[in-house]
Amino acid sequence: MDNRRFPRTSREENLALTLLPSQSGSLDPADRLYLTTHDVSLAGISIELPAPIKPNTDVELWVALLEEHGTYHLYGTVAWCAAPEGQLLAGIALDLERADGRLWAAHFDDDGFFSD
Questions:
Q1: Where are the domains of the chain?
Q2: Which fold has domain 9-105?
Q3: What sequence ranges are listed for the domain PilZ (predicted)?
Q4: Fewer C-beta neighbours within 10 Å, C or N terminus of the chain?
């Protein structure tokens, strides 16, 4: 969590997260979780979890930003999962080249801060 490339903005946004199948697995609709963000950055999102998710798990996200900023379809990979201060969190490294990644990036200024 100390290797952050961009500044974090504390934001509680709603999102749907789907665990993507591994090469040998299949997608199960039960793998969709409805969660809340802990913070966001240009290249990542920290989410609150009810149960751990293994690092290197690929995920598909639908993030609904408040204040009429829209809903964004994103892809990423779980970078870490930990329980600092007793709250289970995971960091998702976003793939900004897929889906709405470039639209997501447009919400951040040149220094990587979220701009409303």
A1: 9-105
A2: Thrombin, subunit H (2.40.10)
A3: 3-99
A4: C
